[in-house]
């Protein structure tokens, strides 16, 4: 039950926060439909206009999406994810790669400096899973396994802010990887990540950054 007493001056913002919290904790997972407007009015104890404004704000932020004749659905877990997903979806491919480089190269460098034995265990397991996923020939399985390895690298950097920012672009990055690899999953599109993990293991920050950067060479413009 979400019912609460809300001050008039911050009514809409507090409703936005209440709805966002339900999404954040998984009460309304991504892809599911949120309760109807009358139900939200009842749950929150506020007027229809207040609920409507809050839903509209979250829709504009990319967290929610209204589907005509069906309802309103959760599209992302937070405003940052929604905004980033929209930006990545319409951005110049070169710019997208540059943003990924900014995040992933620095993450690899920091991981080499800060990794723990537990981080190495996670990296080794993720690398094995990624290679096994490639052998299945299933693009969706591979993309998820590839993402898990990169998330493990970012986690080994031990920078919570970097990890949160990287998580916000996760869906967009997985989509770009799927396009880059292609449904055929040809041998020529497979990029080994063993050297990256080895550099992190060796605490070689420069080599780790170099290996991470090699995966993300920006396309050359004609």
TrEMBL record:
InterPro entries: GntR_C, TF_FadR/GntR_C, Tscrpt_reg_HTH_GntR, WH-like_DNA-bd_sf, WH_DNA-bd_sf. CDD domains: WHTH_GntR. Residues 9-77 form the HTH gntR-type domain. One of its GO terms (molecular function) is DNA binding. Pfam families: FCD, GntR. It comes from the Bacteria. Keywords: DNA-binding, Transcription, Transcription regulation. This is Transcriptional regulator, GntR family. It comes from Asanoa ishikariensis.
């Amino acid at each position: 039950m979400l019912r609460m007493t809300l001050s008039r001056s911050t009514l809409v913002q507090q409703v936005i926060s209440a709805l966002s919290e339900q999404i954040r904790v998984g009460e309304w997972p991504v892809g599911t439909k949120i309760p109807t407007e009358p139900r939200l009015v009842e749950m929150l104890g506020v007027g229809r206009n207040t609920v409507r404004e809050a839903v509209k704000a979250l829709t504009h932020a990319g967290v929610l999406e209204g589907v005509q004749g069906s309802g309103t659905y959760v599209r992302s877990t937070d405003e940052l994810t929604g905004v980033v997903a929209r930006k990545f979806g319409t951005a110049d491919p070169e710019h997208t790669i540059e943003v990924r480089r900014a995040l992933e190269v620095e993450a690899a460098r920091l991981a080499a400096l800060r990794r723990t034995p537990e981080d190495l265990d996670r990296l080794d397991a993720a690398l094995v899973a990624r290679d096994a996923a490639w052998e299945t020939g299933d693009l969706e399985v591979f993309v998820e396994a590839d993402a898990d390895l990169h998330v493990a690298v970012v986690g080994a950097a031990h920078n919570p802010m970097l990890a949160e920012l990287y998580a916000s672009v996760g869906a967009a990055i997985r989509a770009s990887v799927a396009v880059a690899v292609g449904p055929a999953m040809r041998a020529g599109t497979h990029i080994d990540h063993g050297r990256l993990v080895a550099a992190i293991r060796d605490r070689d920050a420069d080599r780790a950054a170099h290996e991470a950067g090699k995966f993300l060479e920006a396309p050359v413009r004609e």
